[in-house]
């Protein structure tokens, strides 16, 4: 579909048939230039919505009074495409269309398209039929007359009329004349068919020989049938009297052409459309032709096309005429009484030129017209035209103004050739021009205005010259001010009002003074009302009223109702002022300051008028000159009609895409025009509505405004736009108001209202809000419970932290107790009683240490800090070993401890350390709370999905009250407390936490005084652990060096006697007693220095330069881990071995310490003998590295046993540097340090610490090892070897060689 706007105004044409054009009826004309799909129009009608529908050769068009919308009908081709499309209205006033080759369409108002209803081509019996006529009966049955009989279409079923001769006759016309009767004609017969009684009657109308009936029309008022023939005129048959009237006999000149259409104009007259001779207006009583309307090529405003195919009268009695070559012609009987005087081509008895610049009436009533090609005169007495100053081929005579002087002469002012005077007898008597050298000549040759004042003087103004006066008495010119003048009007006998390009002036004729009123605007026209006001029209700035009393101006523009801001002429008429503009004529009411506008649709000659081309005759008639002739009218005849318009909503779209009813996702149920309420989803928040107005009277003067209640506070500014757009509407209820307004008066012509609901998303619905309230309540409850838990947990954490900090602090005193006791065990001469007391103390220290470990374990599990480190473990073997470990303890109480497994081997993924504690806790509890001579059975069971460990005892059991709180922290049952067995109340909670970490569950059954059974159930495999766990091989656990207290360790061996100098050890410990104990215990064997924390230790290291660093982990200021990192990452101290001492004995803590690069990690409490052994081992390993360097049998290869990568890279770089300087005997320590990038002192310290050599000795040893390699090759003598090794003195070389290897180079060479 294609929509075209009539950008140019619809033209008016005159019905022409010998009638004087001044009294002709006016037509509007629509053609392809205005948007028709074809100028070959066939059919026209009006639907119930009052749209005008027009069928053409190419499709169907819809007209709303301003815009034309084109519809293309789907075609199923056969041998020939359709010649024409036709339209029909059914009984519901809905539009149908059909093609002459048998395709029938029905218009779908919801989807705004024609849809195929029936297709003759698909009927195998009637596929070649040609449709000639059609009609609907009262039952909405569609009757179709074809070239091969009569058919009717009902319920989409095509049936052939069964009665002869219509069954197979050539049907020429069909007409429904009543509720149950049809007229049907063949070439020579007319039949009346009763649809209810199924009776057909031949009317027996005899038109004579060789007559062919072409069309029928029935007048129900007069009971007459009008019959149009192919070539023999028109007949009128009176059904009551059976009389036939042949119009040719009454009108001998009646044309012999096909008669296609009849339409009643009124009760007395009928219009007859002929194919080739135009339209005839016939009196129904006398049957005489009253008017003939035909096309005249030499006359601009005649019927466009004589091939009339259709005539239609709409609901407002407008007549629409379809012609086959000239589009649509419209006769509006309600059109206003504007008359047009126009130029007719090749007709001297018409206006001389279409462009009229000036109009006047002389004292005899003759009309004078200044045009772009001379001056034309229309004489009143004989209606004859005369023309003056017609231009030659090389000259254009443009006349811009005319004026009659006091003697009846006509002054004609031209553009460029001065002024002419035409005498009362129509002779050219004078020609005045401007002479620059003559002050008494005409003021300018470019004359725009000529005015007669009350003193009979002529005033002339224009361009490129001066204002001048032609004095009536002296018959000479007087020149005044130089001005560009467009308009001159007399205010009174003393003053003139002058408007021009330089503004508005008042000229005093007595004083010759020019008073400027306004320079703001360019003035086209002025009108002083002889009282107070001066009205003036401007170029582009509107219309103004100036008060000479208040000196104030009031302006009016298009915003106030003007059709244009270009005001060319002002003509008074009582309380009205008539204004010609760039866009039609406007009538200004000076009382209420309102405008009434008129356009070409009202009958004006043009919408664009010319400057100062306005005049009012003595009879009161007003004439305005335009670019297409003159519009003339009597104001009293211009009775305005009430403007009608109905808004029609054409399209609805979402996000700039048109949607139709019942489409997927469409909110429309009906067409948008029939929609009163609409619901949009929350994501359909942006929409547009396209609309138009159906109005055939001044449709150009309809503007629109809208407001969306619920969003807009004010109405939109009135505009001519045809769409509404809203985007991003929030959910809610809205009401859209759309109003059509009269452009001139702002009266509301029509209003459309649609209620629109934008549904909220679910999260914003009432149900969602209720859910939110519920969630808020639940969240508040959860937060309350959570805070309670947090507070409770905080209190619990405080308790746990107290216990664990206390336990951590206990380990240092434990070390101070256990270490001396272990040393006492090594002493000889103890009595048996002393040994008993000593062993008793050591055993209870072990128990105390176990309780401390349990507190630390519980802290980690309760705070969810534990992470599983899984390995694959054989469970039968593990449980066997655990049972064996507890066998001795059970035997002390004479408890029978047994183990049972239903499988010989079971490998499962567990965290060994945590599962050890689970099993040990269960076994420990079972032994503690089982009386002497009891039984304990440990079972290992497995099925397809799970495996379990059960510990069943015959102990004191657990009461039902205690069972409810069994896994709560610090809880112990009353019978457990009464048993006087020590405990913390956290063991089972620890078991529960560790089992939960393994994704398992713990079960128990117990009866007081009978015993208990605890069972842990776990799943096979490792997939159920998910993420957040780590895996290691079982054997990897053995590689972590973790030392615990061992009282059976052999005494440490003293360092070899060769270590004459004692090693320096720096001890870093925040506990004074432990620090002093370590100092005392180690001072006998080492040179010991101490520091109270890591920060102090860093300063001491640079001063002491220790051989070994021993540090606690948890310290103030700086902990041991941080200290170790700083030592290892500092090049100056990276060679110092580090041993960490800590009460943190968890595997994670130990791994964290070892990852910093420390040499060993010892947990508290520790055995001092083990610590000394560790120290001596580190010293011994460092000595071995030095010995390997000095060993003659060792090559210069780099040792790989250094503690860290920095030391290794340092020795590697030093060896490579010395090797590069091997043959340079002058290579000194200063050069060595500079090349290494360190100071000489640091070089000395690093080499001394790592390999026990000074820089000089290091270089000497490297060179001597190189000498050994050269001697072994046997290629060089002793002197050459010395030189190649960097010794410039062979004697010194021999001395050094003998000192290192114990023999001279010559003897070594001989031996080789």
TrEMBL record:
Stored PROSITE patterns: HIS_KIN, HTH_ARAC_FAMILY_1, HTH_ARAC_FAMILY_2, RESPONSE_REGULATORY
Domain Response regulatory: residue ranges: 1064-1179
EC number per UniProt: 2.7.13.3
Domain HTH araC/xylS-type stretches: 1212-1311
Domain of life: Bacteria
Keywords recorded for this protein, A-Z: ATP-binding, DNA-binding, Kinase, Nucleotide-binding, Phosphoprotein, Transcription, Transcription regulation, Transferase, Two-component regulatory system
Pfam families named in the record: HATPase_c (PF02518), HisKA (PF00512), HTH_18 (PF12833), Reg_prop (PF07494), Response_reg (PF00072), Y_Y_Y (PF07495)
Chain ranges of the Histidine kinase domain: 805-1022
Annotated catalysed reactions: ATP + protein L-histidine = ADP + protein N-phospho-L-histidine
Keyword hit for Transferase: yes
CDD domains: HATPase, HisKA, PKD, REC_OmpR
Molecular-function GO term, any one: ATP binding
4-aspartylphosphate modified-residue sites: 1112
Family matches, as PANTHER family: HYBRID SIGNAL TRANSDUCTION HISTIDINE KINASE C, TWO-COMPONENT HISTIDINE KINASE
Protein name: histidine kinase
Record organism: Labilibaculum antarcticum
Lineage of the species this protein comes from: Bacteria, Pseudomonadati, Bacteroidota, Bacteroidia, Marinilabiliales
